[in-house]
Amino acid sequence: MPAPDAVKQLVQRFEEQHASYQSTRYNETETRRELIDPLFRALGWDVDNSQHYAEAYKDVIHEDAIKIGGVTKAPDYAFRIGGTRKFFVEAKKPSVNVHDDITPAFQLRRYAWTAKLPLSILTDFEEFAVYDCRQKPDRTDKPSTGRILYLKYTDYVDRWDEIAGIFSRDAILKGSFDRYAEETRGKRGTTSVDNAFLAEIEKWRDLLAHNIALRNPDLSQRELNYAVQMTVDRIIFLRICEDRGIEQYGRLQALVNGGGIYPRLVSLFHYADQRYNSGLFHFNPEKGQQDSPDELTTTLLIDDRTLKEIIGGLYYPDSPYEFSVMPANILGQVYEQFLGKVIRLTPGHHAVVEDKPEVKKAGGVYYTPEYIVTYIVKHTVGALLDGKKPGDMGVGRGQPLRVLDPACGSGSFLIGAYQYLLDWYRDGYVDAGPEKWCKGKNPTLYQGRGGEWKLTTAERKRILLDHIYGVDIDSQAVEVTKLSLLLKVLEGESDQTLQNVFDFQKERVLPNLGNNIKCGNSLIGPDFYTQGTQLALFDEEEQYRINAFDWQRAFGDVFLHSGGFDAVIGNPPYGQVVEEKQKKYFADKFFTTEGRFDNFELFIEKAVTICGSGKFIGLIIPTPLFSNLYSRRLRKYILDNCSINEINNFSLDVFQIPTVHTSIILLGKDQKKHKTKIRQKITNIQQLNSNFDLEISPTDLGNNSNNTFDIFIDSRISNLLQKMESKSYLLGNVCYVRQCIKTGDDARYVEIFQELPNEPWKPTLRGRSISRYSINNNNEYVKYGSWLARNWQNRSFYETPKIAIRETGKQIIATFDSENRFFLSSLYAIYPKKKDDEKYLFYLLGILNSKLATFFIKIIALDLTEGAFTKFRTNQLARLPIYTINSSNVHEEKLHDRLVSLVERMLELHRQLHTATLPQQKDLLQRQIDATDREIDTLVYELYGLTAEEIKIVEGESPNHA
């Protein structure tokens, strides 16, 4: 692509007037207007917003240059696609030496690293430097650190194709920028801003926990956790406000000069209470304030050295963080991880920080990605607002639209919903004529210094209080959600705009969110204590842990006037309910519980019950819900009470953990049923906004004996599956399908012995020990006892004839065990619930190893991972229809006996193959095995009554046997 004439003219003019441009009198504003703006216009960017896009969708944001502490607190340009930042440009005047000056490079890298942008640009037009900003910046870094491209203005014309191929608007839309960013990723180790800031505040927690526990020996464990959390939250809030120009820069930093730091810090907190009116700073009883004031933390003793270490490292140039550009979702991700740990007091009153039990069990904390939040908010909150405008009944006036996350965590969904509403209101006011809304006693808009329209602080507060609601069982999570939302209220504000609120409207700056964001157990009500057990029998710790919550009392107005919330959104917690008291309570109080049930399933039912009629639910949930044998009642409940608007099934690992595969489900409560739109396998983020793969009519989705949501199935396959199920029983109804022993340390507890060892060693098998109809390894043993991690307690699982089935593979791989082996966790054990002879197990084994069984499992197993490593789940195997032999039907009896005979033959042929030594002998046996295998498949097709056309469907869908 040749350079445009406009670029050639820019370069020529700069060459001709080089001395003038190099003058120190030629300033940065002139550089931007006369040189840098035209350069990026030539790259296709709408630098001046000539298309008149709404504020949220402008291509280029020109930041107000706020000087704080002698340093500009925002990059000069943010270049965006669809409102999402792609890169920053930091502009300097030509007299600045971009190549050799340390400060501009460090400044740019701080901005971009904190904003989690991979690349950004430093330019004075004379020089054009591109930086990889994924490496944590340090003030001692050379100006060349992270620099991956450096051009002079004399290179622009000759290398225009390269520049435009990466940084033009069109190149970004085509993915060239992202590919370049990946290709140029620095070889040096990178630390992302969220990981670095998490390590930072975890260090603060350690320092504060140990010091507060030492100096305040009367504190309980709960009080210590509260004190540390609130101190961290308050420092972060005030420091972010400083970088945004809302608070005087360096106010916290000034506290470290001199002794008695904590009493002076408490004075600053009291000042913040008067200014902000937030529950974050709530120290005195106030009328209309439901939350109790904090009377604990102001009396603490904290050493100066501890606070100096925390506060001292938060300022330029020692700090790599530029809080003015840190996205809200980054702060949320950091806090989500931070909340995964708790402070425990030892008997000697020493503080120990450790994982919360539920986090340890889950293997970590997993934050919901922003693209998931955006999609769910758009298709729930956005659907409710579609066609409406500010001022309509039920939208901001009269009866407001209310959005709830019943397990809000650090607040990611509520922040997403709040941002959507802020944008919707602002754009609605502007479209209706902004002059109308910026006048009067209570204006909703004002015009910024750059001419853009912004919502007033009072309007941002009203929107938050009217629309956003959340509940979480964790009190610390509730405080973090409040903190994140309050920082969102203050986004784009300055000390001057807030002082106007304080001086002229005679009200404090922030709302109190105590009535909106509540702490409690969304699933357990106060009647938990009346379920045959007196409240007095639960000690204080137990009551805090259960944290019963009364929805009607907490949100009475919502249910009285609206019948429920307008949108219920979120990522409900996953994990099987194991506590007996809670299992009994849930079994009594929830319609949908059966067998083993999971917390997320309870949250789905709760979401439906608290959602208003005709309103929307949007959740990201584990995909096994669609096929799990024990989730039938819940699927039926959803079908009876909701229209299933969309199912978006992810093949990619949304949460970076391959054991949990997820889908977005969008429901309309009590809405007219229409076709469900399906995306079957989303393998990248872009596909979430692509065309749907199919639509399933409400008469077809879930229209089977188990009400399964078989989203991969067309009508031909659906009819075939119904045919298979019509004369069958489910494997899970007549057999146990067991997960097997997880040792916790195979190297220690699994060994090979050539001779039979003594107790407690037991013969074992693992996944790689078996093939179809064959056991390949007979000399492995497991050291059996209480030291094993899981699934070892019940010997009856293993001391019985059973079928071994491999957990992984592209097809079902099963064999028969008659020697009471104790299987490891890469195998499942299948054996009848009622005692039966071996012939019944041989009948099952023949069906399991058939092409038809693998075909069925592949169709219904929605959460299979892609590639070679494919897992079958016990709940999927339990759904396999096993043909019921009619004992009075002579033909069926003959088919049964023939199948058993063929399976016995297959087992014997594989034993012979295992011991064969001659190649000719092996070839002969393999040919017999292949022929017998085909005969078994044919016999199974006949059992289930498949037609020639249906067999073609199976053969086309099922992999070849290996």
Describe it for me?
- It is a single chain.
- The chain is of the alpha+beta class and 962 residues long.
- The chain has four domains: 5-183, tt1808, chain A, CATH 3.90.1570; 193-362; 370-649 and 703-713, 3-Layer(aba) Sandwich (Rossmann fold); 729-957, Adenine-n6-DNA-methyltransferase Taqi, Chain A, domain 2 (Adenine-n6-DNA-methyltransferase TaqI, Chain A, domain 2), CATH 3.90.220.10.
- Helices cover 40% and strands 15% of the residues.
- It has 36 helices and 32 strands.
- The chain has a nine-stranded mixed sheet, with helices on both faces.
- α15 crosses α17 (412-431) and α17 packs parallel to α20 (475-489).
- The longest helix is centred in the last third of the chain and has 26 residues, at 890-915.
- The radius of gyration is 33 Å and the shape is globular.
- Mean pLDDT is 87; it is low at 64-70 and 862-869.
Quick description:
By secondary structure, the chain is an alpha+beta fold. 40% of the residues lie in helices and 15% in strands.
